[in-house]
Amino acid sequence: SDLHQMLATKSVENIQFLPFLTTDVNNLSWLGYGFLKQDWTLITVNTTGAALQTLYILAYLYYSPSKRPVLLQTLLLLAVLIAGYGYFTFLIADTRTRLTRLGLFCSVFTISMYISPLADLAKIVRSKSTRCLSFPLTVTTFLASTSWTLYGLQLHDPYIMVPNMPGIVTSVIRFWLFWQYPPGQDKPY
Q: What rounded mean pLDDT belongs to the chain?
């Protein structure tokens, strides 16, 4: 819905960028974990997610009036991703150790992805407005984090299960914020 809103209004007003950037890096990181683990569920879901998030970033960049901060944030996280790829590919020879460390790396990005929409928490409480939050993204985050938590539980994989639990918690916080401060009539959600 955020992409639809950008295309319809040709504007990025009231749309957060950071959650989608961290989600893209998160998808790319989990894609590497999926390849290392030979888990086709992780590979399929994260390939699709990375493609969609990259599309969102490109649309955001196109419609953003100030492109420099968007480009700088994107390049910074891309550099972190490339450095991580180099580290896991060239410096860690043992596959089991690589899987463990990549799982921890992915976990950190997953937690940052789930926490990033709360970056504007003080602004939301001060203004008593949830205009900068996306309700559809909150619903999707809740469903995705719950699904991944259950999938990790089924596989007995703490690297999938544990970092998705904050997604459930932060979604519940955002649901509460939407209940406490309903969006104004001018927001199309």
A: 87
- pLDDT value, residue 184: 66
Q: Which carries the bigger pLDDT value, residue 121 or residue 178?
A: 178
Residue 28's closest CA among 2, 53, 11, 55? 53
What gap in Å lies between CA 107 and CA 164, rounded to an integer?
8
**DSSP run (H or E) holding 144:** helix 135-155
Domain boundary among 52, 73, 91: 91
* Full residue range of the structural domain in which residue 109 is found: 95-183
CB atoms within 10 A of CB 140: 13
Residue 186 pLDDT level (bands cut at 50, 70, 90): very low
Q: What is the DSSP letter of 113?
A: H
Statement: residue 15 has pLDDT above 90: no
Tell whether 103 and 154 lie within a shared domain. yes
Q: Whole-prediction pTM value?
A: 0.78
Closest of 131, 128, 160 to residue 147, by C-alpha:
160
Q: What is the Cα Rg of the chain in Å?
A: 17
When divided into structural domains, the chain yields a total of 2
